[in-house]
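Before a colleague's protein record goes any further, I have to sign it off. What it holds is a sequence and that sequence's fold in token form. My question to you is simply how this chain folds and whether the tokens agree. Thanks in advance; the entry in question is below:
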Amino acid sequence: MFDHVTLMTLDSLLKCAFSYQSNCQESSSEYVSAIVELSDLVIDRRFRILHHWDCIYWKTQQGKRFKQALGVVQRFTRDVVQKRRALIAQQGETETQTNAAPQKKKDFVDIILLSKDEDGQGLTDEEIQAEANTFMFAGHDTTASAICWTLYNLARHPHYQEKCRQEVMELMEGRSGDEIEWEDLSNLSFTTMCIKESLRLHPPVQAVTRKYTQDMTLPGDLTVPEGVICLVSLYGTHHNPEVWSNPHEFDPLRFDPANIKSHSSHGFIPFSSGPRNCIGQKFAMAELRVVLALTLLKFRLTLGVNPECSSSSGTVRRLPQLVLRAEGGLWMQLEPLKESCLREPPNK
């Protein structure tokens, strides 16, 4: 699932945030391959102490591969930004000549290209590329992980999968098409509960860091001094039995509105928390609900077996890279649902 879903989330992000038609689901994507290689190399570098020094790392085979993959990513984002800059300039000329109001809403790349500070200065090309790289990488890889693990958890729990499907079917009843509208998202309450429980059980980002800007007193007469960098384990918090009862079980009802009040305010932090939390969390949650709804409307999900693995137990081992993946991938079977089945009452 990871390969297919990663291409889909990249395609979606580029269309929604950059107005860029990549069609990377229909043709091979050098960018996605480079992102995966960079992720692997970053993880590998962490465990090689001598590679922590740039003067050594860039001379190694891994360092040379890193620079090559990084070049692919930078060329890709530079191409996207340059095309959008040219289009904005063209649209500006057209609006000036016709004296017409702009029709298109601004997307992410429009905002970073047009933003100016109090002195009227815009972002430099390097700053724009850095923002674009961050948004594209963080915006598609993490969401792909969240979608895959949610589909996996629903495949493991068919009764929850069916309940989500019925919720979507009731929402779409009487419609000729299968498009999800923005207003529909708030009506997918149980589906959203399943998504949140999956994010708790399998957070795409396992940890974040924060730097203390002042001394912090802790219980037991301990003090964390200013300047220290603290690693906050999102995965550890989500699996802490003092925070969550039966933390390793998939139980969407934890996020029933009636139960939320009993949660710790920072016990569920898949998008981090505070002023430095994830800038794209609303986009990610919207995409998760849309993808899940349309997938369940068309397919029944069951667990698959990795053809390269001799074990048939179906056991999946988590693979903590830059985002949470599965060792050997997440394999599932998708059975197309017949249209007649979708029209049957829920009790049949």
In short: The mean pLDDT is 87. The first helix runs from residue 2 to 18. The radius of gyration is 23 Å.
